[in-house]
Design brief:
heterodimer, A: mainly alpha, Cytochrome Bc1 Complex, Chain D, domain 2, globular, B: about 425 residues, FAD/NAD(P)-binding domain, five-stranded parallel β-sheet, 12 helices, about 30% helix
Chain lengths: ~110, ~425
């Protein structure tokens, strides 16, 4: 969360002195990250916080690096599962990285 | 939370900058900025409720969103076959809309949208009130083409046949009819030609009715009259479940297209095959986009479904009307499911937020589908897929190597199915 705040602050500082389009691009990028991470929310809850009683692990409670390691393991087949290996194979490594950074803790 | 604050701060600042930058776009909602645009969502199902919430989330509460929905509460179609089978009640699948207003500031109008004027950009409500919109999200679900089966309108009005395909009181009535049937009676389910809402739904319903009959009326039979040449979804899994769990109970007849129903003799008639008589008739006619989409002239795909630009879900027939969910013309292997409607809603909401801020829309959205089917009261099978936008062909395509099916029914996936339900209901309503 601090990382995000810091990023936000630096973005604001940079864009305050930059042209409007670069600021807009930065914000639409953030929106696009939110959209990508929202594809997980159906099964894992909005922003990775599951509804109670929770069966799925809370993605928001995990470290980004741990989350990414699990997602990559599902993707490359080293982690077994029912549905996640099938879903993870649909995302690129870069997309999984964005999701892990967005939903996980630093 | 903090991430959202970040987006909030930048969006708020950006709002003022882009509204300044966009002043030249006379008459456009963009000129006023997202905080002043009138955004209306019609339909509070899996698509519409998600769109309303995510318009608020993605704009950091900047968007002013009005949701028009005639029902007081949300009732889930997914899992409603469990009501037909008697293991759940309607109350188990009913949720409140209240949090959308309390937490996200969404204005809810309990009314029915009677017509849309896409030129004047207005919506007429059943109450007579008229609303103006800058951006409209239309999530009308499906409507039944009753006239596709002769005699069906009267038969369904009298309760001789039921559809129970939109979860509600009729779902409970269907269970009551099955419960009132004598042991040794026949339940008939007719399935229309695809595409229709919820591809595996009819076959899951067969499982649920069979599960009930096996326990309570074991001499009874089920006749499945499928207009399709084979089971449309999860075919091998359903066939195996029927053979192993309900041997001798289910008679599956493919390529049986119901053309007429005789309510008096409780008989279904077909193009060529012999008539079928049953004690309980569950007839699902062909389906098309929800009535209001058809009336507005948006159903430009075979006069049944709505073509959309898959980057924004804007109708190709009307500017600033974004159509999501079952009403849309499917991309390749994209099912008409609640999960998919939720995913459409997020892409549409993000596109609207981007457009109203003068940002480029997401160039390569990625969406998923997950669908669980109960083969009895506890055990479940799934199908999953991942769909990526293909910029060259301007459509979603299944990502090669992704997706798949369960290897066999399991109680573990039963717990996942209920977890899915709780989380997706929360994702759209809380």
């Amino acid at each position: 969360m601090n990382r995000a705040s810091t990023f936000g602050l630096s973005s604001l500082i940079i864009t305050a002195t930059a042209l409007v389009p670069s600021f807009a691009q930065s914000s639409s990028d953030q929106l696009n990250r939110s959209l990508l991470a929202a594809s997980c929310a159906n099964c894992h809850g909005t922003e990775g916080k599951p509804a109670s009683p929770a069966v799925m692990p809370a993605l928001s409670g995990q470290k980004s690096e741990d989350l990414l390691a699990q997602l990559l393991a599902y993707r490359n087949g080293t982690q077994a599962g029912t549905i996640m290996p099938q879903i993870a194979k649909g995302y690129s490594e870069e997309q999984l990285k964005i999701i892990a950074q967005y939903l996980g803790k630093s | 939370m903090q991430r959202r604050h970040f987006l909030s701060a930048s969006a708020a600042t950006l709002g003022s900058i882009t509204s300044f930058a966009s002043l030249g776009i006379t008459g456009s909602a963009r000129a006023a900025g997202i905080a002043h645009a009138e955004i209306v969502v019609i339909g509070g199902g899996y698509g519409g409720a998600t769109a309303a919430k995510y318009l608020s989330l993605f704009s950091n509460r900047q968007a002013r969103v009005t949701l028009i929905e005639p029902d007081d509460k949300f009732v889930s179609c997914p899992l409603s076959n469990l009501i037909v089978g008697g293991s759940q009640s309607l109350g188990d699948l009913t949720r409140s809309y209240d949090e959308l207003t309390k937490q996200y500031g969404i204005k809810r109008i309990r009314d029915y949208a009677s017509s849309i004027d896409p030129v004047k950009k207005t919506i007429k409500l059943k109450s007579g009130n008229v609303l103006r919109y800058d951006k409209l999200v239309l999530s009308p679900g499906v409507s039944m083409i009753w006239e596709s089966v002769q005699g069906l309108i009267q038969a369904n009005a009298s309760g001789t046949t039921l559809q129970a395909w939109k979860a509600g009181p009729e779902t409970e009535r269907l269970h009551k009819q099955i419960a009132a049937m004598q042991d040794g009676g026949v339940y008939a389910l007719s399935i229309p030609e695809a595409p229709y809402r919820c591809p595996p739904g009819p076959y899951e319903r067969v499982c649920q009715v069979a599960s009930y009959l096996k326990q309570h009326k074991p001499k009874s039979k089920i006749v499945v009259l499928d207009a399709n040449q084979d089971i449309v979804s999860k075919g091998a899994l359903f066939k195996k479940a029927w053979a192993e769990l309900y041997p001798g109970m289910i008679d599956y007849l493919p390529s049986h297209n119901v053309v007429a129903v005789d309510a008096k003799s409780k008989t279904l008639k077909f193009d060529v095959q012999d008539d079928v008589k049953a004690d309980v008739l569950n007839v699902l006619p062909s389906m098309r986009a929800g009535e209001i989409a058809v009336q507005t002239g948006l159903a430009n795909a075979s006069k049944r479904w709505v073509y959309v630009d898959f980057l924004t879900f804007e109708s190709t027939a009307a500017k600033d009307i974004h159509v999501i969910g079952d009403a849309t013309q499917n991309a390749q292997l994209m099912p008409k499911s609640g999960h998919m409607a939720n995913q459409h809603a997020k892409v549409a909401a993000a596109a609207i937020v981007a457009e109203l801020n003068d940002w480029p829309v997401a160039p390569a959205p990625l969406i998923t589908n997950t669908c669980y089917s109960f083969v009895d009261a506890k055990r479940v099978v799934h199908v999953a897929s991942v769909h990526a936008y293909d910029a060259k062909e301007k459509t979603f395509k299944v990502v090669p190597g992704s997706g798949g099916l369960s290897s066999e029914p399991s109680a573990l996936e039963g717990t996942y199915a209920w977890s899915w339900a709780r989380n997706i209901w929360s994702d759209m309503l809380a």
